[in-house]
Each structure stands twice: as structure tokens, then as C-alpha cells.
Amino acid sequence: MDFDPLPNEVLYAIIDSLGTCCHININPLINASPRFFRLWKKLSEDRLLHGLQAHVHPDAMNHALAIINVPKRSTALQSLPQARQSFLTRYFDKSNPFPFPVDYLQMRTLAHINARIEAMWKAYAKATLCNETNHTGPLSWFEVARLQRAFFRHELYCRVFSRGPDGRSIMGANDQFDLFVSRLAPWEAEEMACVHDFYTWHVRRMVEIMEDDVVNAVLLASAGVSPSMMPQDMAALHAPFAVVSFAEAAEAFAALPPGTTHNLDGDGFTPGPQGEAPGQGGRARPNVPRAGGMHETALYPFSTAEKHRSAQHLSYLAALGVYFVHELLTADKDVRRQTLQAYFGSARDFFPEALECAPKEACLTVIPPDVHEEHPSKPTMGYFKFKQSDYDTYLRISGDGYLSGLLRKRGYVFWDVGRINEETLDECLVGARNLAPEIARHGFDPSRRICAEERLGDVSLSRTQLRRIERDFGARIRRQ
User: Fold this and answer.
1) What is this structure's pTM?
2) Which region ranges are annotated with the description Disordered (predicted)?
């Protein structure tokens, strides 16, 4: 059929009707007619444009646009940190917003980011209002704006202060505070803290599930019950000197230089740049007992000695951004386990460390007289009523910041006055505000959890069993 005589309005109607039929492939029509292709492309762009404008609040749009404009590489004139410093100057200049993309691929990128972000803030709102407070009711447009801004801003922070080639942040905590956090009002930083806590809370659940699997695997192996045990492995159980404790297995792993990759698919270690693998033929032969145990094997993420770093590990994973967190939460168990193995032992400066750089001096909080006038550009009544400080300061995430954990989980900075004043939500937030410090720390400080090493005690394994469990659950690199 010749489409050229048909007016554009008719072709638009044809494309629109065919596009809604999922069983019809319109690619042959697009490829056969240049005019049909141009109209299809224009219609697709219009749909994306209208969809984004309908789903992203105008007050949150510039934060979304900033994400797709983050410099990704250095130039001849600027290093990557310098390019991103210049970018942040532009981002915080409210008189110079980022333009909406005209390129279709950029539109699709923005739409994809928005889809991921939307899934996350909706999950947060549902968990907060439905699960935590048994409160239902549609979100207001202002509440949507606050949630979108916080989640877009956190994603922007992840991309601006990304990892360098060495796995650490391209800019330290002091620079992060000076360049980004200090340009936010404390209530805006608290919105981001809610998002960061939400991500780390879910990542922590995944890590703890894996830690439970480690404990179960060790207990089953020590009892001689292993679904994957082969006949040759059974012989190893009775071989002379075959049974070792975690303390005895630690010597070979401790001898490796930091950052050396542990060859979990074989019997030994991949030599680091400073020397050869211990033992004969690359095989690790731990034979010197030493104080300690799991913390010097590849299972160190689950050790007592590593507990104090667990918050940093979780923050590192949250700092990988919304795509990583979403994929981690939706992946099957084996993929999730392998992903966590690849990142265990990593830590870097990120948002929690930047908040630690905030000045200690602050003025008493003064509640503005127009606090009841709802607008996304202003802090909410919930922030003033429930925040854990009487001073206008940046609230920490770690340390005494755990006292704000339950408030952040219940989204106290996002809700309108009408919702805050409802009895059910108000009671929940009052309870969170008055939560005993010890209970708050026990619930939100990951170092308070009883780790796998503490739960296992002096359980002993054969070398073969230990290697298998290290391969299945151990970190891929030595801790930094």
C-alpha cells in the first residue's frame, strides 16, 4: 500500500492503532516507508515527552535532567573531578536549568531512569504508609514531588561521586560535602538520607540472608551433610590433618597483600604483584594455628572483626545507584550471591561520610510561620515536628544518626500537613521520635547483629569443605 497520498493525521491514527496491538509487528512498515518512519519517530518522541511531563513533577524535573547530563569522562581541558565540579556549579544554579532532551535516545534514557526511580519511590511510599503505619490514601502531587526529588538527587549523587579505577570515590568526603551537601538545606539532605537508608536497609536484608546461608552451609558441612558432596570429598574427611578450624585456615589468606584476588574456583590463590602464592604448586596449606579465624579467610565479611565495617559495606552497595539496587533485589538467589561476592570488602567515601564533615556549630531551629503552606520547595511540618535535633544541622546517618532510622523509614520529611496530623501516622511518628536509643541502635546499626562467626563458634571443617564454602560465599578480593 502506498502511504504517500495519505495525510499525516491518518498515518498518525494508523500508527497509533497498530502500536496498541501487541501482536502486530509494524517494523516492516517503518522500514518500507521513510515518511512512515519519520512520523512513527515523531509520535514516539511525543509520547515519551508527554509521558515524562505527566509523571515527573516540574519541581523534580531538573534533578532528573541533571542525571543524564553528568560528565562521564575527562576532556583535554578538565579532569573528570574538575568536569563534575563545573557540572555541580551548573546544577545548583537555579537560573540555568538543564534543557529537556530533543534526541530520542536521550529521551529513552531519561524515561528508563524515571521508570527505575518511580518503582523505588512507590515501593518506599507503600512500605512506609501501608506496611509501617497501616495508612492508605493516594499521595498528593506535592508528596510525589518530594519523593521524586529525593530519589533523583540520590541517584545524581551516586553518579557524580562515582568510583574511580581503584574502586574508591573520585572525590573524598570533604569535597563531597563542600561541593554538594553544603549547598543543600539540612531538610533537603534529610530527604536524601531517607533514600540512602531505604537502599541500605534492603541491601542489608540481602546480605543477612546470604549470611544465614553461610551458617547453614558450615553447619551442614561440619555434620557431614552436603548435597553436593562427592565420594572423593568424603575421603578428605578422614585424611590425616584434613580437619582445620577457621583459625587454622587463616594463615594463607592473611599472607596475601591487600587487594589480591582470591581464586575461589580453584584450590589456591591468584598471586598478587608482590610475590607467589603460598604453599607448593600454588596450593594454600594452612598449618600454623593463629588467634582469630573467619576474618582472615575469604569469608571475612561475616566475621566478628569485620562487623564495625558493615555499615560502610552496605553504603558502598547503595552508592552503586538505583539500577544496581533494583537488579540486586529482583535477581535470583544465585545471581544475587555472586554479585555480593564481587563487591564484598569494598568501602569508600560517600554520603554518610560527607555528612560527618558538616560543621558542628548550628543555630536553634526556628519554625517558619508559613510552615502550614504546602509547597515542595519548603520543609514539611513533619521535619520540624519530629527531627532528632533542636538545631538546624545536618543529621548524620551513622553513629547517633541511627536514632533517626525509624523516622526515615516512616518518611517523616515527605508528608503533607494533613497526613501528618492524622492520628494513625502521628502516633507512629511520635513512637519513632521517642524510640529508646539502645533499641534504635540495635535495629539500625548493622554492627549490632550477631555475625556468622559468633554464631558458629569453634566449628571445624575439612580443607575441601572450607574451599567449597569459600567458593560459594567468600569475597573475591581481600578487604581494602
Assistant:
1) 0.81
2) 265-285
